[in-house]
């Protein structure tokens, strides 16, 4: 939906020339008067162009104003005054692209929200559970403890555990089963 903004009521203040004492009307390129008339005539259409490319009115107005400022600064290079509007349109498009790029980059650089953190009570409870698990693990037979640590903490398969410990696959299964049962009993007794 095009943005409709009020036309500027007063004539914009004249910006002095880069060259001291130079008359803008006689210099080559677009004159300030021609640029001012272009501003009055095409401000709304350029604002509508920016509105098609951007999503908020303030950004559209900023882009159009910046386009006029840039074309004013480079008006000596616009040799044919009839091409002033084309330069303005292209400048609006380029500035709109830049504004969108900055937004996208800003969104990418925003810090991602932290995951929900556990409360202090939950952290303390988890620490107590870890402490009781460690105590229960220390109470297991050496082979049961070795099998459980390699199987569940080192994430090894039963065959890999059997090879690492130099025992049979059946022994790994037996030690693992008995170790888990002993842990359940020890953890249930401490709770």
Automatic annotation (TrEMBL):
Keywords: DNA-binding, Sigma factor, Transcription, Transcription regulation. It comes from the Bacteria. InterPro entries: RNA_pol_sigma-70-like, RNA_pol_sigma-70_dom, RNA_pol_sigma-E_actinobac, RNA_pol_sigma70_r2, RNA_pol_sigma70_r4_t2, RNA_pol_sigma_r2, RNA_pol_sigma_r3/r4-like, WH-like_DNA-bd_sf. Residues 1-16 have a biased composition (Low complexity). Coiled coil: none annotated. It comes from Streptomyces colonosanans. Residues 1-27 are annotated as: Disordered. Belongs to the sigma-70 factor family. ECF subfamily. Residues 131-183 form the RNA polymerase sigma factor 70 region 4 type domain. Gene3D superfamilies: 1.10.1740.10, Winged helix-like DNA-binding domain superfamily/Winged helix DNA-binding domain (1.10.10.10). One of its GO terms (molecular function) is sigma factor activity. This is RNA polymerase subunit sigma-24. One of its GO terms (biological process) is DNA-templated transcription initiation. Residues 39-103 form the RNA polymerase sigma-70 region domain.
